[in-house]
Design a protein that fits this description.
The chain is mainly alpha-helical and about 350 residues long. It is built from 16 helices and no strands. The chain starts with a helix and ends with a helix.
């Protein structure tokens, strides 16, 4: 077992080497961000429209699949936005909220100021981490339930934006509940977002925008202007997109920890990359999410440079580097491993983690 001093030294060495090898990759390409967002939004809503209006089964299926993947990709940009500074890609946050966040009633304020807590070294893997649970210790049934509940996400955002948000402006207790428990995209059900009396004007605008969007679509649907089939297709694509994201979440980490603070190397070794030659991660882990371990190592790298950074680190870091120990071949292989470990006694899990770390 490493001493604390050697652990800190090894952590610093890994971070220093990674920064040195990728120093020229930290600047976001503004043109690429905007082009990707516009093409993704156009494909998402175009696919939705065709799937909701076509009459041929094959056309509906193809358009629905394309729309689903585009909706999922568009929604995944919320992760990138949580790491962008306003000056990095000016106006991108507003553009994303108008094109994706508000139509899905999942505005960026629900991830901003929350996701960064997952990257805090003193929080990762603990009860204060909004995006961590000891999933490895769950039973297979509980893991399946954890995944399936994501299908209800559209109902959740409709209830939040259409009912609770407007109520919260007149009932203080509802406002506190919305702000502390219903304003964060998390997997830790015990996480409570810090409440304060000052709401950022842009976050308030996002909430009101989602509220008005929800009521506006409902009114137009009741009036017969918006077809019910279009709303049902929106619901189905959004539901399936969040389901795919939940599957991705299951393989984003190894979920070894059970609440104790971890060294940075342990945090890194608990995270997962699914690099090439696998092709499908481009679809189920878009916008750089296939390089989740690398992202935890270098969270400031823009998504479009993660592949290049991974290639450099893989080629130039020593064979003994922890960087080479966090790869999985694909979604189904990683899911199979997680479900095989599920419910394993704690001592057996800890022994496996130690063995993997020292490999």
């Amino acid at each position: 077992m490493k001493t604390v001093g050697s652990s800190l030294k090894d952590d610093a060495d890994l971070v220093r080497q990674a920064h040195r090898l990728t120093a020229d990759l930290t600047a976001p390409n503004r043109t690429l961000y905007w082009l990707d967002l516009i093409l993704t939004a156009t494909t998402a809503w175009g696919g939705l429209w065709v799937a909701a209006t076509a009459h041929h089964a094959a056309v509906i299926a193809v358009a629905g699949l394309i729309g689903l993947l585009a909706v999922y990709r568009g929604l995944s940009f919320i992760h990138e936005i949580s790491h962008l500074r306003p000056k990095d890609v000016p106006g991108f946050r507003l553009g994303w909220n108008l094109l994706i966040g508000v139509p899905l009633m999942t505005p960026s304020m629900m991830y901003e100021g929350v996701h960064n807590l997952h990257h805090a070294k003193h929080r990762f893997g603990t009860a204060k981490d909004p995006e961590y649970l000891p999933l490895e210790r769950y039973s297979p049934f509980k893991l399946a339930l954890f995944t399936a509940i994501s299908l209800l996400a559209p109902l959740g955002v409709i209830l939040r934006s259409g009912v609770l948000v407007p109520l919260s402006f007149v009932i203080p207790s509802v406002r506190r509940f919305v702000r502390t428990k219903l304003s964060a995209l998390v997997i830790n059900p015990d996480f409570v977002r810090e409440d304060n009396d000052k709401t950022r004007p842009d976050w308030l605008a996002q909430e009101i925008g989602c509220w008005l969007w929800c009521w506006g679509v409902a009114a137009l649907t009741i009036a017969g202007v918006v077809p019910v089939r279009l709303v049902a297709t929106w619901f189905a694509l959004f539901s399936l997109a969040t389901f795919v994201n939940q599957l991705r979440t299951l393989v984003a980490h190894y979920w070894h920890n059970d609440g104790e603070m971890m060294s940075f190397e342990d945090q890194f070794l608990d995270s997962v990359n699914v690099p090439p030659p696998a092709l499908l991660p481009f679809l189920w882990a878009p916008v750089g999410l296939r390089y989740h371990a690398l992202h935890h190592l270098l969270p400031r790298l823009p998504y479009h440079n993660l592949g290049k950074a991974h290639a450099r680190l893989s080629a130039q870091l020593a064979a003994t580097s922890p960087y080479h120990r966090v790869e999985e071949k694909g979604l189904f292989a990683a899911l199979a491993k997680l479900f095989a470990r599920a419910g394993t006694p704690v001592l057996a899990i800890d022994a496996e983690a130690v063995e993997r770390k020292s490999a």
